[in-house]
Amino acid sequence: MLPAREGTVEAWALALVLERDAARKLAPGAAPEVRDEESWCEDGVERRVEAPGRPGGWSVTRRAEKAAKTGALGRVEERVRMLHVFAHHELQAAELFAWALLAFPQTPRAFRAGLVALCGEELRHLASYVRRIEELGGQFGMHPLRDWFWERVGSVRTPLEFVALQGVGLEGANLEHAARWARLFRAAGDETSAQLIDVVEREEIGHVAFARTWFERLSGASLTYERWAAALPPPLTPALFHGAQLNLEARRRAGLDEAFLAALQRAGPAVRERAAP
Prior knowledge:
This protein is mainly α. It has one domain (75-275): Up-down Bundle (Ferritin). 59% of the residues lie in helices and 0% in strands. Helix 3 runs antiparallel to helix 6. The longest helix is centred in the middle third of the chain and has 29 residues, at 159-187. 41% of the residues are buried.
């Protein structure tokens, strides 16, 4: 793959995705200033990374991590395990925002600068989860990792597919999952972790709003459920991308209208089971 000019946003993004050192993977340096013209390579080269770098001490699996059962979060090791899953989701999201910046150099710079900002927020969420894991006596990398996001998002063909899948889809579903897990951690007596998950939920409303805005700019049409469904790369369907109970308040704040939400609610659990990969 053709390297990007040193010191540019593109070089930073490529290093972030391919990094194999555990310490640098979890705490990369800050991105170059996106408002500086010299921070951009702008050579028009599409740099599509097929897989992220993973430190040798981390175990990567294709098996799904089982969610903690009701009551299990009373055990600290189960809370650590679930926080480990959440941290890995944040890592993948950060990597994939960087991936999109590299894969779609023809998109408006405002879009790519926005991806840098989102990447920074995901890295901050990652760092917060890693600190909490360590406070509870664990360490990131102690559990196997499943790069589920990469298995899906890394093959998208267009910027529109990317915002449909990563932003409206995965980030949207996380609004439900974060709200649910915050309640479960709170019920288990872990208010510190619950508040951390609350912060992630609030900030990811902006991620969904970013995706909605750019879906409309890239497609030239308003975001509807039908247009979103058509933009998802097959065989993925909208039924995969929501919790059992929609986080309606958060999704409304992200700019999703009532018609969209009503259609999403109709994609119920039975549909979701059939659609699951």
